[in-house]
Write a structure and sequence with these properties.
Blueprint: H1 11-21, H2 31-43, E1 47-50, E2 56-60, E3 72-77, E4 99-102, E5 105-108, H3 115-128, E6 140-145, E7 167-170, E8 178-182, E9 185-193, E10 197-199, E11 203-210, E12 215-216, H4 228-239, E13 245-252, E14 258-259, E15 263-269, H5 274-291, E16 300-306, E17 310-312, H6 314-326, E18 330-334, E19 342-354, E20 357-366, H7 369-386, E21 390-393, H8 407-420, E22 425-428, H9 435-441, E23 446-449, E24 454-455, E25 463-465, H10 466-485
Parallel strand pairs: 3-6, 3-7, 7-23, 8-22
Antiparallel strand pairs: 1-2, 2-6, 4-5, 5-25, 9-20, 9-21, 10-17, 11-15, 11-16, 12-14, 13-15, 18-19, 19-20, 24-25
């Protein structure tokens, strides 16, 4: 395999990053990547276990003389968010990523990069390889999980009985010099409408919302970026005021945990008021663009003719429209004790037809279980009043509680200061981390996070700093050594 990072360091870790990038590994399609890790571990003669969810546990023996030191657990997730440009022909089920270097940045053409969380997996693979023999460490228990991006579906059922460590380094964080101290829990709510179709009679109009920035529904939720599904809901709600129309088809968003960037909806105007409808659309779009001129300046709404063969009933059209318009979205409550940190937020990530029903999929995040449950009730009540026939409420993905006396964090802060002369930042994130699952499964686990400079996760502009990747890998090894020596 020819590596685009040839000549860059750390060579082995970067090559493993590229090896993983060459393997399709979107959520629920991680088997090949898990087998790759498993086979590598077996080739080194290490203990390895791969379960039914394709989670992989690998144990790297301790440096001679440190066999009795308490193990350290490292953790990262194999899966990535499959996001691409609308005109991209990339097939995430069979195509590897097309990587390239732009200055100090590693990027992927037209798709997400998979740095979230490819860098952490690459680091662990490198530690399994010869890099793991060049520094002092106890037994390292490496956990590669699956399905993180769709609700921790690998970590939640995972059997952790063979994990002895009660010290963990989570590598789904960042940027460099920032360590996390807590994370929010999360829950998914899916609202369903069963459309009854009839032959299309009227004038077809296609509405395409695009050009939005999007982003991670946790890290970017306070940036007040537009949500394409909510934009479409607002357009349709207002068009109902001036004409009778029926939805023919609608699709928006790809992941429930990504702020959606696009929504395409075809409607059929049944009462001859096409001009009024277009006039209303243009007026609403002008309002939206003015409102988001600073936070999402490139919103585009294209209107064109179309000729759908069928359309939904008035009942189904009204229900889908009003669910999209009325279900709350964005930050619902801010934390007054930690400035800038939300307590609870919602993200309407997906609208599409699934098995003959229109599904509106919203993700809730909250550091408070009671606040989360209250907003779940709120969403389900609003959706039911709007016409939803079913509201499916998913499982609670645990929050990672704050530990004020974390010696793992103290060692991180001390080492970072001694190495760089700078103070590391302690972050309190609104995003969900699998560390919440592991802290619940293994009580008493001391946890710290390490990450690289990588930006725009879950978007096609995702990028990772190569110089940061190198610095953080060296810091990771030194940190493990420091924790090992302190016992």
């Amino acid at each position: 395999m020819k590596y685009v990072t040839e000549g860059y360091e750390p060579k082995i870790a970067l090559q493993y990053f590229e090896d993983l990038a060459a393997i399709p590994r979107g959520s629920r399609n991680e088997e090949a990547a898990a087998k790759f890790v498993e086979e590598k571990a077996k080739s080194f003669g290490y203990y390895v276990r791969r379960d039914e969810s394709n989670n992989v546990v690998v144990k790297i023996p301790a440096t001679p003389g440190y066999e009795t030191v308490e193990p350290i657990c490292l953790q990262a997730h194999l899966d990535m968010v499959n996001e691409k440009n609308a005109d991209s022909t990339h097939d995430f089920t069979k195509d590897g990523l097309d990587l390239y270097i732009d200055g100090d940045w590693l990027k992927a053409r037209g798709t997400t990069l998979g740095c979230d969380d490819g860098y952490g997996c690459a680091y662990m693979l490198a530690l399994m390889d010869e890099e793991g023999k060049t520094f002092v460490h106890p037994e390292l228990e490496c956990i590669f999980t699956t399905g993180e991006e769709i609700g921790f579906v690998g970590a939640m059922p995972m059997d952790c009985s063979d994990i002895r460590a009660r010290r963990m380094i989570g590598m789904d964080g960042g940027p460099e010099g920032v360590t996390c101290a807590t994370s929010a829990g999360a829950m998914e709510v899916k609202m369903y409408v069963t459309p009854d179709y009839e032959a299309a009679k009227g004038e077809g109009v296609s509405i395409f919302v695009s050009g939005l920035i999007g982003g991670h529904s946790a890290g970017c939720i306070t940036f007040e970026r537009a949500n394409s599904n909510k934009v479409m809901g607002r357009i349709l709600h207002n068009v109902r005021k001036v004409c009778d129309f029926r939805i023919a088809n609608i699709v928006g968003g790809l992941m429930f945990n990504a702020i959606p960037r696009e929504n395409r909806c075809e409607i059929v105007i049944t009462d001859g008021n096409k001009e009024k409808a277009i006039e209303k659309i243009n007026r609403v779009v002008a309002e939206i663009k003015a409102e988001y001129r600073a936070s999402d300046p490139d919103i585009t709404v294209e209107i064109s003719d179309c000729s759908p063969e069928k359309m939904m009933s008035a009942r189904a059209t009204k229900a889908v429209t009003e669910i999209m318009y009325n279900v709350p979205n964005g930050v619902r409550m801010m934390n007054v004790e930690v400035p800038g940190l939300p307590v609870t937020s919602t993200n309407m990530g997906i609208v599409k037809e699934v098995d003959g029903r229109i599904m509106v999929d919203t993700m809730l995040r909250s550091s408070s279980r009671t606040c989360n449950d209250d907003y779940v009730d709120n969403i389900c009540s609003v959706a039911t009043l709007a016409g939803a026939e079913e509201c499916y409420v998913g499982y609670w993905m645990p929050a990672w509680p704050y530990d004020a006396k974390s010696y793992m964090r103290d060692i991180y802060l001390d080492l970072y200061k001694s190495k760089t002369g700078k103070e590391a930042k302690v972050n309190y994130v609104h995003g969900g981390l699998e560390l919440g699952v592991f802290s619940e499964k293994m009580p008493g686990m001391q946890i710290v996070t390490i990450g690289v400079d990588a930006f725009d996760a879950h978007t096609v502009t995702e990028r990772m700093s190569l110089s940061s990747f190198k610095r953080v890998f060296e810091f990771l090894k030194e940190y493990i050594t420091e924790v090992t020596k302190r016992g």
